[in-house]
Amino acid sequence: QVQVVESGGGLVQAGGSLRLSCAASGRTVSSYNMGWFRQAPGKEREFVATISWSGGSTYYTDSVKGRFTISRANARNTVYLQMNSLKPEDTAVYYCAAVGRYGGKWPAVAPTDYAYWGQGTQVTVSS
User: Fold this and answer.
1) Which residues of the chain have pLDDT under 50?
2) What string of H, E and C letters represents the secondary structure of 85-105?
3) Cα dihedral 38, 41, 42, 46 in deg (nearest 10)
4) Taking the CB of residue 101, how many other CB atoms lie within 10 A of it?
5) Which of 12, 34, 114, 126 could form a disulfide with 97 if both were Cys (CB 3.0 to 4.6 A apart)?
6) What is the pLDDT of residue 67?
7) Peptide bond before 111: cis, by omega within 30 degrees of 0?
8) Residue 93: what pLDDT?
9) Counting Cβ atoms within 10 Å, is residue 118 exposed (0-12), middle (13-18) or buried (19+)?
10) How far apart are the C-alpha atoms of 30 and 112, rounded to whole Å?
11) Inter-CA distances, 94 with 18, 25, 37, 57, 111, Å
C-alpha cells in the first residue's frame, strides 16, 4: 500500500507556471503507475495526465497537451506535474493518484482506475 501527498499549489496569474509534487510513502513509487486529476467547484473530477511506473510512457488530456508535463523521480519517490501557460480554467484542486503497475490498463484515465489518492492541493489561476 502507498500513501501520496500533494504539494506545490498556490495562486498564480494567467500565463504563469507552477510545479506540483506528489510524494509517496509506504511502498516504492516505482511499483505504481501514477496520475494527476483535478476537480473544479461544481464539476466532476477529471483526468489530467498519467505516467507509467518507469516514466517511459505518458498520456495527457487534450486541454493540457503542450502546457503540462508529468514526470517522476523514482529514486526520490516523487511524481511531478509542471504546469506552464496556466489559464483561469485550470483552477481546481489537483489530486495525485496511484495504481499498481501490474494488471491495470493503459492509459488509466478514469478515477475508478486508481486505488490510492492524496488529499489534493489547490491551484488558482487569476485572469
Assistant:
1) none
2) CCCHHHCEEEEEEEEECCCCC
3) -10
4) 15
5) 114
6) 98
7) no
8) 98
9) buried
10) 20
11) 12, 19, 6, 21, 13
Question: According to the model, what pLDDT value does residue 29 have?
Answer: 84
Residue type, 5: V
Strand order in the sheet with 3-7: 3-7, 18-25, 78-83, 68-73
* CB 10 within 8 Å of CB 125: no
Measured in residues, the chain has a length of: 127
Tell me how far apart the alpha carbons of residues 37 and 46 are, in angstroms, rounded to a whole number.
5
Torsion region of 54: left, alpha or beta (phi above 0 gives left; psi -120 to 50 gives alpha): alpha
Task: Output the pLDDT for position 1.
Answer: 86
> Beta 10-13 vs 121-126: how paired, if at all?
parallel
DSSP assignment, residue 75? G
